[in-house]
Amino acid sequence: MAAGRRAKQTAAEQRALQKDQAKRRRKAKAKQGRKKDVVHPRDQKQPEPKMPEQHLEKPGLESDLRPRPEYQAPTYRGSGRLQDQVALITGGDSGIGRAVAVLYAREGADIAIVYLSEDSDAEETRQAVEAEGRRCLLIPGDVRDSAFCDAAVERTVAAYDRLDILVNNAAYQQHQDRLEDLTDEQIDMTFRTNIYGYFYMARAALREMKEGAVILNSGSITGLEGEGSLIDYASTKGAIHAFTKSLAANVISRGIRVNAVAPGPVWTPLNPADIPAEKVPEFGASTPMGRPAQPEEVAPAYVFLAAPSMSSYISGEVLPVLGGQPIAG
Fold this sequence. Notes:
By secondary structure, the chain is of the alpha/beta class. It has one domain (80-321): NAD(P)-binding Rossmann-like Domain (Rossmann fold). The protein has 9 helices and 7 strands, in the order H-E-H-E-H-E-H-E-H-E-H-H-E-H-H-E. The protein has a 7-stranded parallel beta sheet with strand order 3-2-1-4-5-6-7, with helices on both faces. Helix 5 (184-206) packs parallel to helix 7.
């Protein structure tokens, strides 16, 4: 009899839970169509919940973006974590690369940045680095060219006498709705920029790096989960994640660490130079935070993985920075 009463009680509890859930669903349904809440950093000015329609000519100038991406991280305080080290950052003229350059300089590093042709953006990055009291070398060129990558490393070492950190960050992407629309030229551009360039730069850097050096690669959520309209780009990002783990295993005996950061959507020139203007306002809106990241929100992950005081026991890892988005699978 006691067991029967317990069973009936459990059934009643289940029905109560069912009714409560039905009530919650009715409330949730009533909220449908309302504006999605956007989660903002508490200690920073609020980013725009939606970006205005705009389209940039490739490769895209950050100075043309509205609103301007946030890269100065005014609440970030340096503490000498990278004091007197030298960092070479590809794609360092804008976006994540620029924000990383600024924070590395704030932590005491001298900077060299590789960029394609965006001279005005590169100059703004140089001024931002110098405002932190550090030096900044500008190296324009194409990472698809292995000879250029060799020369970029040589110029960096000639200027600073050492190379401690390589950040592989340069990228190309172009949405296509169907695989059949991917031309040989686009596939070649994407792979040679996004993964060949990483190989070339890492190979050149390792000739100069000593024990304690670090290589960081910019991966992507698309390399973790795929993206139907970015088949070639997502494939290169998946390759970058595998490259990171494999290279880490290869050089660990030399005392060199290799890691990657895999961001979700970030407000940089990359996407407004790719997607149609009318799709820009929805960029990043599907994340749990309801917006894309600002570059200054992603850059601290690169500091963490570069600084031996914080990550000396970490190598071969891919660190997601996804605005609360759980990784599928």
